[in-house]
Amino acid sequence: MGIFTQFVWLGGMLLEGVILVRSILGKSFAKYPLFYVYIASVLFTSGFLYVIYFVMPSKNVPFYWRAQYLTLALGCGVIFEISRNAFTQHVSLDRFVRWTMGMTFGIIFLLVAIHAFVLPHWNPSVNPADLERDLRLAQAVALLAIVFLTQYYGIEIGRNIKGMILGFGVYVGASIISLTLQLFVGAKFNTAWQVIQSSSYLAALSIWTVALWSYDPAPARPNEPPDPDYQRLAGRTRQVLGSIQEQLDRTPR
Amino acid sequence: MIQLVLSLLLGLALVVSLYFFARRSKPSAEGTAQQLREARQTLDSLQFGLLPNDLVERIFAREDLEYVLSAARPEVQSLFLADRKNIALAWVGRVRSAVLNLMRFHRGHARLHARLSFSTEIRLALNFAGLLTACRLLQITFYLRGPYAAPGMVRTAAAAAGRVCSISEDSLAFLNVKRVDQLENNEARNRA
């Protein structure tokens, strides 16, 4: 094991420990339970893989991919946590993000099932990086939806959730890019892939450590809408825009 | 291959959007009395400052062009065309920015509602985008071919923007002085 890998591995575990300790001291564990369960599971699997690396080196790779799938599944919980807290006063937006992620996962699993049905000899475990990249894509779509919606509606979010989005987004984005390039370039890219993957996770942990150092409550609830009937507002705006569209369709171009 | 390129693009899109997300300043307190007043001003400027029919007809009056072409020297003709082109471009630019302000107002107002209709919001966003694109096309047409290139389009855009105002006027009926003052009082109390 190289010095860089040792540094990333141990540094990562140290930061995960710090985040968990701060969550208990700052009483924020109960506020973001899914996020901290994710961190705890990564800390546990990292420690486990570290021991396996020295005790049973040959089992390290298969264990690595199993642990990666476990943390990947728990990572979806982080997105639920982000969406729930970012849109705490916007039920419909939260539901939309969940729906988007559910649909994307559904499409990916459907494609895997079709592949397995059409190609009986095809086995996703032969190339686990391929499947991981596909599942990371679903997470990326959900994160993009969250970022876009907060930007579009000008929704204010707290430091904790902003940090979660940035940290997780950096890790997911770097994973997708490196996994895609690995599949594209081949074995030559393996070393670079390992460096990118572990560095991006270390970067994510650093962001989380700073952003979640103390509990930052969600921003205060905005004013009540002057017109409480959303349907009336939307109906009138739609009417305006419908007539504009009608007029523009008649325009000679 | 296409799948790999799409994955790469999605990863890059995520990283780029995170960059802008990290740089985002604190959003303004939408829905405040100040913002409601601005919405009122936007509507007023659209209705009274930009869209009176006689003003639009004056800018794009073909009689003016015919008169200048028949009576003036070539350098005066080109000066006239350049002036009208600049006025037309400024007019479309102002209409476009006013529509943008209205769109911002709608989003800021809609976000105060806990339960939005997502399909409605998507349709509205697409319609706003359509109108903005039409304005942009007008700008390009004026820039490339002058203010007399698309008379039909000008009339249509003016009428369409006029309709936005008149119907938005109804939807913003709650923006009366009493209501805004009440909101300001509430805000002052909250601050205290």
Which helices and strands appear, and what pairs or packs with what?
The complex is a heterodimer of chains A (253) and B (192).
Chain A: H1 3-25, H2 33-55, H3 60-86, H4 91-118, H5 128-152, H6 159-185, H7 190-211, H8 230-249
Helix pairs in contact in A: 1-2, 1-7, 2-3, 3-4, 3-5, 3-6, 4-5, 5-6, 6-7
Chain B: H1 2-23, H2 33-50, H3 53-59, H4 62-71, H5 74-110, H6 118-145, H7 151-171, H8 177-191
Helix pairs in contact in B: 2-5, 2-7, 2-8, 5-6
What does this structure look like?
The complex is a heterodimer of chains A (253) and B (192). By secondary structure, chain A is mainly alpha-helical. Chain A is built from 8 helices and no strands. Chain B is mainly alpha-helical. Chain B has one domain. Chain B has 8 helices and no strands. In chain B, helix 2 runs antiparallel to helix 7, helix 2 packs antiparallel against helix 8 (177-191) and helix 5 (74-110) packs antiparallel against helix 6. Chain B starts with a helix and ends with a helix. Chains A and B meet through helix 4, helix 5, helix 6 and helix 8 of A and helix 1, helix 5, helix 6, helix 7 and helix 8 of B.
| Sheet/helix structural class of chain A | mainly alpha
The amount of beta strand of chain A, in percent, is under 5%
CATH architecture descriptor of chain A: Up-down Bundle
Which residues of chain B form runs of ≥5 with pLDDT under 50? 174-181
Give the averaged pLDDT of chain A, no decimals. Answer: 81
Number of domains of chain A: 1
The domain tally of chain B reads 1
Segments of chain A where pLDDT lies below 50 for 5+ residues? 247-253
Look up the CATH topology of chain A: Rhopdopsin 7-helix transmembrane proteins
The rough form of chain B would be described as extended
Beta-strand content bin of chain B? under 5%
For the terminal residues of chain A, how far apart are their CA atoms?
Answer: 67 Å
| Largest interface: pair, residues per side | A-B, 65 and 67 residues
Instruction: State the helical fraction of chain B.
Output: over 70%
